[in-house]
């Protein structure tokens, strides 16, 4: 199993559902609704917005915003949606910038956590071009221990691809993982871990840093 993925994902989803009952802040509630779907939940919402952004303006008006939430099956009443939209539409232009929206929605992380995530990224990004690909993984990740490789179900490349799919945007799996996708993924995992120390130990063990 991948470093800190499945188990943390489950724990985090359960924790997010629990916290949702107590949360009153609309942005926090939307964040928890996304995290209840696992580490890739926030990224998934971003992907829905991206698909809707026909004119590539990287902005959404209120109608698009609500449609995106509905497409992603986020059950939010209109008042709450309006409140969230207003928070993000800082200049009152009637549109929100969805990159800004996703960064704000991402659970905040300390610099210590960001730094260890970047260390793991750099270790995997063998070629140093800021994108992790199957080629990069050949040098760092041993597929031969994977049960599906051992029983002949998967080739080495399929093991690598499944590994990358963990971190890739849910609706846009291209077999490449950018710094942002990696960071987004671990922002999700990070949300389920209370202390920096534990998060850093987990990352060091997972990635042998």
What features would you describe in this structure?
With 209 residues, the chain is mainly alpha-helical. The protein folds into two domains: 3-105, EF-hand (Recoverin, domain 1), CATH 1.10.238; 111-207, EF-hand (Recoverin, domain 1, Orthogonal Bundle). Helices cover 60% and strands 5% of the residues. The strands form two sheets. A two-stranded antiparallel sheet has the order 1-2. The protein has a two-stranded antiparallel ribbon with strand order 3-4. The radius of gyration is 18 Å and the shape is globular. The mean pLDDT is 85. InterPro entries: Ca-bind (IPR051581), EF-hand-dom_pair (IPR011992), EF_Hand_1_Ca_BS (IPR018247), EF_hand_dom (IPR002048).
Question: What can be said about this structure in brief?
Answer:
Residues 40-75, 76-111, 112-147 form the EF-hand domain. The chain is mainly alpha-helical.
Keywords:
Recoverin, domain 1, 60% helix, single chain, 4 strands, repeat, metal-binding, CAPSL protein, mainly alpha, EF-hand-dom_pair, 12 helices, EF_Hand_1_Ca_BS, two-stranded antiparallel sheet
